[in-house]
Each structure stands twice: as C-alpha cells, then as structure tokens.
Amino acid sequence: MLKPEDVLGAIAAARGDAICVPTMTTAPAWRTLAPDDLSVTCVGFMGGASALGLGLALACPDRRVVVFDGDGSLLMQLGSLATIAGARPRNLTHLVFKNGVYHTSGAQDIPGGLDVDFVVMAKGAGYRNAYAIKEPNDFTRRLPTMLTEEGPVLVELHTGLAEKTPMTDRGGLPFHRQAETLRTKLRGPRG
Amino acid sequence: MPESIPASLIIDTLKDTFREARAWLAAEVAAPPRHPHLGWILSVPDTHQRTVLAALDKEQAIRVLTCATEDEATTTAAGLWMGGEPCVLMIQHAGLYASVNTLRGVAIDGRVPVFYMIGLLSREKDTRWSATASRCSIPSACRTLGSRAPTTCT
Q1: CB-nearest partner of B71 from A77, A174, A188
Q2: CATH of the domain at A25
Q3: ipTM
Q4: What is the pTM for the complete model shown?
Q5: Do A187 and B29 lie within an 8 Å CB cutoff?
Q6: Could you report the per-residue pLDDT of A179-189, keeping only the tens digit for each?
Q7: How far apart are CA A69 and CA A51, in angstroms?
C-alpha cells in the first residue's frame, strides 16, 4: 500500500518542469510540496482532472503533463479514458490514486469499491500503456519511466487515505487564479 | 426548414477567428507556440451541425477532437486555453444542459473564456440575431448562467 504524501513527494522531486493537475485529496499535500510552480488544481468541477490534463498536454506537446486523479473522480467522467486514448497525447501521464472511497465527503465506498479495475479500462479504451502499482519500492523504481514513457499512460496507484482533504485543509488559490497564473507562466520563457 | 448558414462560411469564420486569436498571442508572447494548425474544434457531434462536421473532416488547418461528453469538451478547452491554444466547442443544446456544472466551474467561476457553438433543437429563421426572441430555451438559459453574449443564428 502506498502513502499518498510519499507518492506526491517523490513526484515533486522527479517531475522537472512537468505540468501537474491535482484534484480532491491530492490537492492539500501538493499545495505544500509545490506551492509556486506549474500546477493547476481541478477544483469546482469534480471529475475534470483528466480532461483538463488532456487539454494542457495537447497545447504543450513539449512538456510532460501529470494528472493526479482520484478513483471516484475518474468514475464521474469515465468517458475521458476514450477521449484521451483517441487524442493520443504522447506526453500525458494519468495517475489514479485508488483508495476505494470518496474520502473528501466522508469515505463512502465508490461504486464497486476496490474491485474497479482502471488498468483494464484504460487498456480497453486504447491507452498506450496501463499498469498498477501497490508497493512503495515498485513505485520508486518505476517513477522515472512513468514520467517519461510515451503516453497516454495510466498508472493505478493503490494508496491509503491522505492525511488531509479539501474539507479538513481548506485553502489555496481559487481555480480562476490558478488558471490565469499557469497560462501566464506557460506564455513566458521556459526556465 | 429554414435556410442554413453554409458550412464553408462557418469554417472560414472559424479560421479567421483562430488566426486573430493567434495574432493576439503572438503580440503578447516572446516565443509563441508554433503549431501546424490554426486551432481546435472540440466536438460532441450534433445532428444540426453535421454538415459542418463533415466539412471539417477535410480541413487540415483545424484539428477536430471528438469528446465523449460535453463535460470533457469544456474542461479540455480550459487546458487548451491555459496552453495558449484557441478552440471552439461544437455541441448540441442538450449537451449544454448536461454539462452545466462544468460550465459553471470552468467558464463562470473559473473565468476561462469558452466559445460554444451550440446546435439549436429547432432552428428559427425569424429570430435571427435575437437571443431574447428565440423560443428555444438555450439562449435564455445562457443569460441566466451568466453568458455574456448568447446569440442565435440560422
């Protein structure tokens, strides 16, 4: 079982200038780990992280885009798997933090719970690659590859519950300010 | 059946719009992105726009991405906008209703400018350019949702 904060910390250290799209329970920890960088949180329209990442990946084909999706969130726009597969963004890494519950709203089970297999779904939709990771050592070993391999790639991360949720740790910029800030940064010279 | 705007005119207008958007970006950015296309159409196919979609299939300058839902199309448009890419959504009127929360989160609260081209359920020749006179509920719904310029064209 992976700890979400450890996963995010490792990604923060390894991502380079990748654009990151957290949502729901990955948002509070990511705010702390990467406060002033190329990120935009999908907040206010649950389920939109994957399609938001797709748009960024298509607009910025020379950068890696990493989506930190949730299992409950992805179920809300499951069709995005087919849309992403059809668009074939080579630079998109789609991480699904799988804990089997809607953690933010009180940890109610998602439909199907932990039996839902996003790897099979992504492969069936046409992702170039999809696999699950359950152990920290396996995650550490495969992280460099998942941040560079040809996409679209989906990685199902079997995690415990995050320490914080958007309900227990409110804050961060509203979406419109994050979006404008990221747009401004992407228009500037690449650092 | 009322007469329709020719598909070629719509596509030429889209090209002009995309060129203008890119010119704005080029004026503001030291090194604007260079893409082989002018802009994007994000489509959830609509019966009333089928002739335009068929014509777009032959276009090299405009990239068309078919989305599974209007939610995805709206959110993908936000990502493209952040990356400096011009895009237009082509959806049906029922799809706008289906994606109202995403519209609110992205285009209203999120303040991302999203250009929707929506096929009306029933086209009305006599209400050209008049959002208030249309019998279709979409124009008034758009005003309620905060759209700045709902416009009907036949």
Answers
A1: A77
A2: 3.40.50.970
A3: 0.95
A4: 0.92
A5: yes
A6: 999 999 998 76
A7: 10
